[in-house]
Structure formats: C-alpha cells, structure tokens
Amino acid sequence: MTALFHSRLHKYWKLFDIGLQNTFVYRWNFLLRMVFGIVPLVGMVFIWKAVFVSKGTTISGYDYQEMIFYFLVTVFLDNLITPTEDEWQIAGEIRDGKLSAYLTKPMSYLGYRICTYLSYRLLYIAIVFLPILGLAWFFRDAIRFPEHAITWPAFALSTLMAAGLQFFIAYSLAMIAFWVLEISTIVFLLYSFEYFLSGHIFPLDIMPAWFQAVMKWLPFTYELYFPAQVAMERIQGAALVEGLAIQAGWLLIAWGCARFLWARGLRKYQAVGG
What we know:
- The protein has helices spanning 2-25, 27-36, 39-55, 64-81, 86-95, 99-103, 109-138, 151-175, 184-197, 209-215, 225-231, 237-268, and strands at 58-59, 62-63.
- It has 274 residues and is mainly alpha-helical.
- The chain has one domain (2-268).
- It has a two-stranded antiparallel ribbon with strand order 1-2.
- α3 (39-55) runs antiparallel to α4 (64-81), α8 runs antiparallel to α11 and α8 (151-175) packs parallel to α12 (237-268).
- The longest helix has 32 residues, at 237-268.
- The protein starts with a helix and ends in a 6-residue tail after the last helix.
C-alpha cells in the first residue's frame, strides 16, 4: 500500500515537473503575461480616482482607499488562481487527436491537467510576487489587514475553492471540443459574462439590491468577488458561512460537470489527426 502511494505520488510529481518545463518553453509569453497581468490595476486606480472626485467621498460604503484595496486583492487573486489557456490547450489536444497519447498512459487526464495548472500558477505567482509586493508597498495606505483571526482560514478556504471552480469551468468548456470543432466563440461569450460578473471591473455590492440577490446564486460571484470580500471582512458571521456553502456547492457542480462531459465526450472521440 505504501509503495503504491509513493508510486502515484512520484507519477504526479513528474507531471507537475513537466508542467514547469512546458511553461519555460514559452517563457516570453509567460513573462509578458506576468507584466500585463498587473496593468489593469493601474487603469482601475485612475478610473476610480476620477469617479470618487466627481461623486463624493464614499460609494456604496467604499471610500477611495477601500476601493483600491479591493482591486489589489482581486489582482492578487486573479494572478494566483485564474487558469491560463488551459481550455485552449485541452481543446487543441482533443481536436488534433493528441489526447490519444494520454489515454494510453496509466494516469488520470484530469489529474494531469490539475498538475499542469498548479505548476503554472505556482511558478507564475513566485515570479510575480515581487511586483505585487511593490504594488502593495506603493498602495500601502490602502491595505487593511483582517482584524479577526477566523478571516485568514476563511479567506484561504474561499481562495482554494475559487481556484477549483475556475479550473473546472475552464476544463468543462474545453470538453465541448468533443462535439464542436472550434470553441472560441463559446469561450469568449462565457468569459465576457464572467469578467463582468465576477468582480473584475467593480465590486458587485455597488449594484442594486435585486442584482446582488441574483448574483448571490450564480458561480461567477465566487470566482473573485466573494474571496475578496472575505479578505476585506465585508462578509462575516452567518453570511460568511452561507457564502462558503454556496461556493462549495458550485465547486461540486463544476467538478461533476467536468467529469460528466469527459465521460460523454470520450464516446464521441475519434482521434482525428492523432
């Protein structure tokens, strides 16, 4: 039993290492993504500064410093957990028949993709950590560390579930390639909604109450906005427990959807080009 466990652990460690090597094959693409990954924050700072100058000192309970802190947290989370081209790579392997090479190996394809996702994200955050620290120092007046100890594990748990949710959504999108030759339109359509509804552009609680009530039950909220709100301690107590439960529910649904589409897709797979 112990030998079997070590064998599996070694296997997936090698997959993790392969993911690191693949990242360095396209190192310029990697470095450019790293640089431009933090550029949106600069634009948001100037936009919201202009908004606060024209509207007043607070907007829906946010002052200017709190708004900057919100975007600092979302930029950090975005760089930490958002999949990068995973859906395109998976769809390409299905479309080109390269998936066959993985099906003949004694491993889970989902496990392989999780390892490559983790390797890319960990390497990315390790390299972008210093620029993020620089941003944190520059905007240090806006940073507010949690006052309650429970916030730290709650934020960590929410971030982990947000990472899983984003990965399984990307994985499920890629599975559409079993039925549709080109998935780019579907991906761009969904990601357009996701970018707007996950809190990239603005915190969702500045919107009307009916909008917030609807968004509470959609998965997009739990990809970025909810973890950021946990870190800022704007969600606490019963609302925090409820939010974590809903986020866990969406994570299970996304995982189940990914497994279902994979199982059904394999029945359609013809290894064209493989």
